[in-house]
Design brief:
CATH class of the largest domain in chain A: Alpha Beta
Strand order of the largest sheet of chain A: 3-2-4-5-7-6-12
CATH architecture of the largest domain in chain A: 3-Layer(aba) Sandwich
Order of helices and strands of chain B: EHEEEHEHHEHHHH
Radius of gyration of chain A: 27 Å
Shape of chain B: globular
Number of strands of chain A: 22
CATH superfamily of the largest domain in chain A: Thiamin diphosphate (ThDP)-binding fold, Pyr/PP domains
Radius of gyration of chain B: 16 Å
Distance between the termini of chain B: 32 Å
Structural class of chain B: alpha/beta
Number of strands of chain B: 6
Helix content of chain A: 25-40%
Oligomer: heterodimer
């Protein structure tokens, strides 16, 4: 058996291969993306791996694959499951054939997300099993075994690692990779796969009948376990278990929940043999609610008693403090840490030479009084440039824009959306805006790749997840076929021309689309595109700070004058902004 | 008890690569190890931190006020994270620092070196001229390995394991200059 130092997501991908996975589908989303990225970049023969255009599309294909008897996984971040919720709910009724794992990665503390929703609630809503690993090793083992569990109950299994599993590393014991010998065959059975009312009523009953055996099986499998040591107990689950185990005194009983639904009889027996219970879990009180149902007069501390917060992620010092607040013995109390030093913040920022910055600068210049709905991607960082007024979910830039226009907001409304996000859920919004004759400008920030999550290819890239070259989709033709009459494709690197196109769009009625097309600066660097560097002439610069306010990380102020650092990628935008032509390409001097 | 290291810097400086080397060295020695990393949007030029706990069997997160060692690739980030250090912990940092773009955009006074060093307080701090040593090794991209070398005597792992882990982790073409960077870091004198 190999022991390697692996990222949680890499260990999960390996676990899938040990289960002889046949097919993998996903849409990138932090912290889930590296599972598909690991599977698709293997050298050896591999399962079919695909980056789909959105989570619903990915989910339905993985489901179909399972219906053909293949072991399938679909991966997404927690909010991606909102997009795939439609097939999720009914696939619990139809059931599955080949093992089917839905990986949805939760993000407590919203490190890289728009909310902190708890996917365990989706599993309960759909009445499917949920596995919630407490460590990287357990994540690997759980996902490896999840396919068989799915086949045993003919149900999708929701596998829910959190950020601190996906993006943690650990020494992991790996087993051998197994190669599948399955062959895809779909056996027709309308009573299972055609959910007309007459069928679905029966299927719903079957789903409910599966629950008691499922609950018992999860205890038998050892995912839910306990040690009785005294009359005081802590019940915990997921990654919170790791923090609890590190700080809890050895004299206290502990129950660790790694799978749902929880067997209430088993839980009740444990709870009733104690006087005091504390429940420690991240986000929603999923365990706590079941504990309270079986606890009777026993004192239960947790979120509902005000001892543990509903939001954010847990940590050693927080768990220790919550235990102490309920007078539960701990091994270690942590000193109240000194507050961090007061320093200027260093938030993430668009890269030096990123074309999103140039495009957003131009938008701000042309639409001074405009409203700027935006979307999810690197360009959300345009918040720092004052060109992001709203962000709610994938694809909602265009619909928020058209909604405002239809509500009667009279200022210019200009929304920004990336190429991948446009293809994910932006097209429908555009079609709708044209159909209902909204007056908006849509700027598609087309950098030919899904950049923020780690440069995954998408239909604009001209390459598939497994590296096969395909014709890149034409965003321009897509927009035209939605009925947009004003569609212009232009690189923002020529700032003057780009501003000209935006002015044209501003003057026209209806829906206007400007496709700001320029490859991601990181992709270009990897492809060894070298545009040289720019420099500021000390004698010409008047210290007006126009270039500094542009916000490029390669531009600093030194002694009151602008200075361009090694970070410069040679995009030349600052040279076009400078009012006194003090900036030029180094070789030109 | 584990030996807890916080590695801090700015997205793109190689915090993850450095922790991978330490993690691999743990596997070579058969020591259990846990790490936590920053991925995704936060990487775009923002403050990043990687936590690594040598000999840990539970979670990957280090509590503030308990770290045994901070390795910092930027003096300003060392100050930002120094509340993580434990009473007996050591801080090892590069002398250079990058002023955040927000400072220039919003016309804040940029922090100077003296101010940053005093921000580290009376902790056990070692400041290394990592950039100069990396240049001497052959590439400024090896500053992270210079600092790892400088920290190596405090890390409870054998030097041979760290060197082997470097060979396994860095791109093949850069093995020699990285090994040289490690050596230069190990013998580095304190510059301030």
């Amino acid at each position: 058996m190999d022991v390697l130092y692996l990222l949680g997501n890499e260990a999960i991908a390996h676990g899938c291969l040990e289960a002889a996975l046949d097919t993998a589908f996903g849409y990138p989303g932090t912290p889930s993306s590296e599972v598909i990225d690991t599977l698709r970049t293997r050298q050896e023969s591999q399962p079919y791996v695909e980056w789909s255009v959105n989570e619903k599309v990915a989910y339905e294909q993985a489901l179909a694959s399972s219906w053909c008897g293949m072991r399938s996984i679909v991966t997404m971040k927690h909010v991606g499951l909102n997009v795939a919720a439609d097939p999720l709910m009914t696939s619990a009724y139809t059931g599955v054939k080949g093992g089917f794992v839905l990986l949805t990665a939760d993000d407590p503390f919203a490190h890289s997300s728009q909310n902190e929703q708890d996917s365990r609630c989706y599993a309960a809503f759909a009445r499917i099993p949920c596995l919630d690993p407490s460590s990287v090793q357990e994540a690997h083992d759980m996902v490896r075994d999840a396919f068989a569990l799915s086949e045993e109950f003919s149900l999708p299994v929701l596998f829910r690692p959190t950020t601190r599993i996906c993006h943690s590393k650990s020494d992991v014991s790996l087993g051998p990779v197994l190669v599948s010998e399955r062959k895809a065959v779909f056996e027709k059975d309308p009573s299972q796969y055609v959910v007309i009312p007459a069928h679905t009523r029966v299927l719903h009953k079957k789903l409910n009948e599966k629950q008691p055996a499922l609950r018992r099986r999860l205890v038998e499998l050892g995912y839910n376990r306990c040690i009785v040591r005294s009359k005081i107990a802590v019940i915990t689950g997921g990654v919170a278990s790791a923090y609890v185990q590190e700080v809890l005194a050895d004299s206290v009983s502990i129950m660790q929940i790694g799978a749902y639904p929880i067997d209430e009889q088993w839980l009740g027996d444990f709870v009733r043999s104690h006087d005091t219970i504390m429940v420690i879990e991240e986000l929603a009180p999923v365990i706590e609610e079941v504990v309270r149902q079986v606890s009777g007069d026993i004192q239960v501390f947790g979120k509902k008693s005000g001892h543990v917060p509903y939001e954010g992620e847990l940590s050693l010092e927080r768990v220790s403090a919550y235990l102490v607040s309920a007078q539960i013995p701990v091994k270690k109390e942590y000193p109240k840490p000194l507050s961090p030093a007061a320093l200027p913040v260093r938030p993430p920022i668009l890269c030096a030479g990123c074309m999103h910055r140039t495009a957003m600068y131009a938008i701000k210049k042309v639409f001074r009084d405009g409203i700027f709905p935006s979307d999810i991607g690197c360009y959300t960082l345009g918040l720092q440039l004052g060109v992001v007024d709203t962000t709610i979910c994938m694809g909602a830039s265009i619909t928020i824009a058209s909604g405002m226009a239809q509500a009667g907001e009279e200022r210019d409304i200009v929304c920004t959306i990336g190429d991948s996000t446009f293809l994910h859920t932006g097209i429908q919004g555009l079609l709708n805006a044209v159909y209902n004759d909204a007056c908006i400008t849509v700027v598609i920030l087309d950098n030919r790749v899904t950049a923020m999550t780690g440069h995954q290819p998408n239909p604009t890239t001209g390459i598939t997840a497994s590296g096969v070259q395909i014709p890149a989709v034409s965003l321009e033709m897509l927009c035209r076929s939605c009925g947009v009459r004003f569609v212009e494709t232009i690189s923002p690197s020529d700032l003057v021309q780009f501003i000209g196109v935006l002015k044209e769009a501003k003057a026209q009625p209806g829906v206007k689309v400007v496709i700001a097309k320029q490859p991601c600066v990181i992709t270009e660097r990897r492809a060894r595109v070298n545009r040289g560097k720019y420099a500021v002439s000390n004698t010409t610069c008047i210290g007006c700070k126009a270039c500094v306010k542009f916000g490029c990380p390669a531009i600093e102020l030194q002694g009151g004058l602008a200075y361009i650092t090694d970070l410069c990628s040679g995009c030349g935008a600052c040279a076009q902004i400078c009012p006194v032509a003090a900036i030029s390409r180094e070789a030109d001097e | 008890m584990s030996f807890d290291i916080l590695i801090v810097g700015i997205g793109g400086q190689g915090t993850i690569l450095t922790s991978n080397i330490i993690g691999r060295a743990c596997v070579i020695e058969g020591v259990s190890v846990r790490g936590a990393e920053t991925h995704g949007m936060a990487q775009r030029g923002g403050s990043v931190e990687t936590q690594i706990r040598i000999g840990q069997e539970f979670g990957p997160l280090i509590a503030p006020g308990t770290a045994d060692l901070i390795i910092s690739f930027d003096l300003m980030e060392a100050v930002r994270s120094c509340h993580y250090i434990g009473e007996k912990g050591k801080i090892l940092t590069a002398r250079e620092y990058v002023i955040p773009t927000s400072v220039f955009m919003q016309d804040y006074p940029p922090p100077d070196e003296h101010m940053l060093i005093s921000g580290l307080g009376d902790r056990d701090v070692k400041i290394i001229d990592a950039r100069r040593l990396a240049e001497e090794a052959g590439s400024i991209l090896t500053q992270n390995i210079v600092l790892l070398g400088a920290a190596s005597s405090c890390i409870p792992l054998r030097e041979s394991s760290l060197l082997e882990a470097i060979r396994l982790t860095v791109p093949k073409k850069t093995v020699e200059i990285n090994l040289k960077a490690f050596e230069l870091g190990k013998n580095a004198s304190i510059c301030i």
